Amino acid sequence: MVEYDVIEDAAGLATAVAALAAGTGPVAVDVERASGFRYSQRAYLIQVFRRDAGVFLIDPPAVGDLSPLQDAIGALPWILHAASQDLPSLREEHLEPPSIFDTELAARLLGHERVGLGAVVEDTLGITLAKAHSAADWSTRPLPQPWLEYAALDVLYLVDVYDALVAELDEQGKTEIAHQEFETVRTRPVKPPREEPWRRLSGLHTVRGRRSLAVARSLWMAREDYAREQDTSPGRLVPDRSLVAAVLADPASKQDLARVKDFTGRASRTQLDRWWAAIEAGRADPALPAERASGDGMPPPRAWADRNPAADLRLKAARSLVEQLAVELNMPTENLLTPDTLRRLAWAPPAEIDAASIGEALEAHGARPWQIALTSPVIAGAFVDSVQTSEAASDLAS
Fold first, then answer.
1. Which residues touch 20 (CB under 8 Å, ≥6 apart)?
2. pLDDT, tens digit, 9 for 90 and up, residues 272-320
3. DSSP states of 245-295 as a string?
4. Looking at 224, 251, 284, which one is the last position of a domain?
5. What is the pLDDT of residue 394?
6. What is the CATH number of the domain that holds 329?
7. Is 60 within a domain?
8. pLDDT for residue 298
């Protein structure tokens, strides 16, 4: 049975931070949220482990001010698994790491076939972790003991995993690569909100006509407002498919809406006035949305052969070489260079095709120095070859 301390007040936090400050080595940190249950992505449990200190399970809603924790571990390297998921919730609690080591990302860069926490622990340490409560509602109070034990195990072995992965990175010559990737994750700015987030409604493709889309938008906004007010996941109030069903049914009255069989969800009838008001608002809205979301001017690659044959040749030539390079480096292609970056570069390359200009373009698209150094000469060569292939094909055709 794993040992841990549950921290639920300022006095408990003071004891925990004193122990953590006196511990040794880096600190392992994990976060449990209530995704799928709550509207917010706040941390409902923060797990912390440091050698010679122990495991502490901190209840942020109960404790409140976590600045003592930041003071205790704010100068240490933090070990996280899938850090990009946890950092936003930690920052909401004003917890900011000075540097991170992401065990999931390290495993990807090392070419591990499985990169979930349980798999990485098993592959590096030979220990099997049960993942029975990963999708639990962590806003539940009191938290059941089996959940707490599960949460403690999420950090208990992370420092040992860190030691193993550090050695692996050194063996594969990827220590600097990993450092650049970790720092990119740590410092990545918050994504701006989507311009039209309502277009992510599942099933929206079945809705036809700008007026119907306006109704769908209005229903989505009404659900978001209510979900935020109730701090409940929107889909638990009224699922996407139910909002779309209401749009497609085109009810003539509130009573007709109540009779739509597929308009379900725990708030579908208790908030019927809200949904009917949203439908009426959508029908009256003079600002009709476009039939399709505005794009970035770059069509899907399947259309490139007709729309931009030269770009199609560039993409195909470079993609195969980048994929081959990723195999040689023993890492996923998307970690070597994201497919979107390569597509954008192939669609709109620099005027001069050489490694230096390709490198500058990659940097502008957010590629890291190690990615630029490895891929820019490969991409430049592929783009030049694609031009020669195109010219040879034209000569044969003429």
1. 27, 48, 50, 53, 56, 69, 72, 73
2. 999 999 999 999 999 999 998 876 678 999 999 999 999 999 999 999 9
3. HHHHH--SSHHHHHT-TT--STTTTTTHHHHHHHHHHHHH-SSPPPSS---
4. 284
5. 53
6. 1.10.150.80
7. yes
8. 86
Say whether both 308 and 267 belong to one domain: no
Q: Write the DSSP string, 153-215.
A: HHHHTHHHHHHHHHHHHHHTT-HHHHHHHHHHHHHPPPPPPPSSGGGG-TTGGG--SHHHHHH
Q: Is the pLDDT of residue 397 over 90?
A: no
pLDDT at 154: 95
Q: Which two tokens stand for residue 171?
A: 């063996």
Same domain, residue pair 356 and 251: no
Distance of CA 17 to the CA centre of its chain: 30
Of 231, 257, 284, which marks where a domain is finished? 284
Q: Reply yes or no on whether the pLDDT at 322 is more than 90.
A: yes
- Co-location of 17 and 152 in the same domain: yes
Same domain, 244 and 117: no
Nearest to 57 by CA among 184, 163, 149, 189: 149
